[in-house]
Amino acid sequence: MKIQRTGVSGINPYQKQLNKQEENKKLSGMQADKLEISSAAKEMQEASKVLEARKEKISSLKQQVATGEYQPNPEHIAKGLINFFRKP
User: Fold this and answer.
1) Helix, strand, or coil (residue 58)
2) pTM over 0.90
3) CA–CA dist 58, 45 (Å, integer)
4) CB-CB contact of 83 with 77 (8 Å)
């Protein structure tokens, strides 16, 4: 009985896959990564700055209330409420 070899002898069957990976590495080396920040992300960054200012204002008001120095201005509060509810 004679047994013949099947397949390709002397060649790595995974060589084609390895060649593709090497080509991809070469191509990806040529392309540089890019980062683009969307307008929504920029707005979120601005909002975080506003949050910091609010935190400082709140801590200041808490301190004034605790020491009894806080004197609310009713006219200013009324104007703020009117402006808030008149917004479309």
Assistant:
1) helix
2) no
3) 20
4) no
